[in-house]
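Q: Joint fold for the lines below.
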Amino acid sequence: TQLLEQSPQFLSIQEGENLTVYCNSSSVFSSLQWYRQEPGEGPVLLVTVVTGGEVKKLKRLTFQFGDARKDSSLHITAAQPGDTGLYLCAHNYGQNFVFGPGTRLSVLP
Amino acid sequence: DTGVSQDPRHKITKRGQNVTFRCDPISEHNRLYWYRQTLGQGPEFLTYFQNEAQLEKSRLLSDRFSAERPKGSFSTLEIQRTEQGDSAMYLCASSSPLTVLSGYTFGSGTRLTVV
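A: Joint structure:
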């Protein structure tokens, strides 16, 4: 299993601030996914990145896949309390996905 | 179709009891997965079905765990002789072969507490 590391583990910020969270590995991936999970719910897919250097935007969220396809970042602009949750990255491994431990984000009003 | 449904949402059981969870995937998805998630961790793969065939099982799936998908539609996950270490969120997800690389659709999970 190719392990994913996520940083920071926890992040607490004020509404309106910007933030970046990271997903890293020593392995090369064909694709990488980002999910957001709210307390008591299952993860919800946000985006899939497949090309090295790829940048995808989803409203205030910007996802980047590293040139070497070993890492990815998620940047949130002007964070809102509704962005609060656990952000997970995952990669395809055989017929299933392997998840990182997540970054738990709390956006305070 | 409203997505992946899991039942029950919460289950509290005494140690040593058996429990069974149900998952109803998105109807056109032929692949179904079970994951387990403990506090502060990401989901960990347990097992995977394609139609009614169970094609892969993790080492996490001890002999006390069994999963079925008898008609290739809904699935059940049974835990026998529960232990406190089984306390976790059990997540079900589904996908179709065309979208497998695009990620899963997860259900809301069943939170198991073993007391």
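Q: Anything notable?
A: DSSP finds no helices and eleven strands in chain B. The interface with chain A takes residues 4, 31, 33, 40-45, 48, 50, 55-56, 91, 93, 100-109, 111 of chain B (CB under 8 Å).
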